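Structure ticket #2291
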Amino acid sequence: MEKLFAVLEIIVPIFATVGLGIAAKRKTLLTTEQVRGLTNFVTKFCLPCVLFNSCLSATLEAQSLVAMLCSFVTVLVASLLAFRLRKGAFPYHNLPMLFCAQESGMLGIPLYMTLFGASVAYRIGVLDVAQSFVAISVMALLAAPAGSSASPKEIVKSVFRSPLLLASLCGLALNFTGAIGALERIGVAKLLTATTGFIAQPISAVMLFCVGYNFSLARGNRQAILRLSALHFGLFAAAGAVALLLLKGTGSADRFGIWAVILHFTLPASYLAPGFARNEEEATVAASVCSLLTVVSLAVFCIAAIVNA
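Resolution: structure written out below.
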């Protein structure tokens, strides 16, 4: 009975918050623009603070490096496949956005923190950093005006403008150069982590509320939605299995690293995908694929909660 309630203490708040988001949309308590503002606040301020604090104490052992490499290679291969499929079976401009990034920022990191706490959030955060080089490059290409393409210089600039990447790199730099130790000795480090920790507090509730608000399973284009969802899940699940085998091979895998990989590779496609659509059909398909994969991801999270209770 104790284990049941321990699991419920994790799962019930998650689904209650998602449910509030669904209810807010049905009752039109908030506009889409207001919810987008909440999302921007979290992704541009709260999440970078979480990753900054986590990377300050991160230890990039073999398992983290292996997982990061697997994440990078997977999204690179999947993105190239998506660009190819865009010319044939799925002629959607924004199709590569469904394969260039897992939704670590808006969903994966908050879920992982719910299970294991903010102190080890870097375990899944570094996977987001690894995929960001591909994801931001794809976004730069898709955002280019019709008939043109982004230059390599513009792509590089876009990559290094990401708040999540900048915060992670800053935290890692302070950590591995030993600068954080000097800041601790003069008392600045505590002020820094206290401030960033305070800013990061609303992240889980706000993002899960936004997930619920944006949840959608469109009836039109059902076959394409199901096929794309199956393709996404199959590709990333297979890559996740390979990553776990490689982790086992290093002999240094622990439960934090293992569950970071499992959650990361079963996350939905980036929630930004509908925003790169050039027509209503593309936006609807992308939103529906993200919604369906979110259900799968939350199911995996429930399993993780039961196992780790």
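Closing remark: The mean pLDDT is 84.
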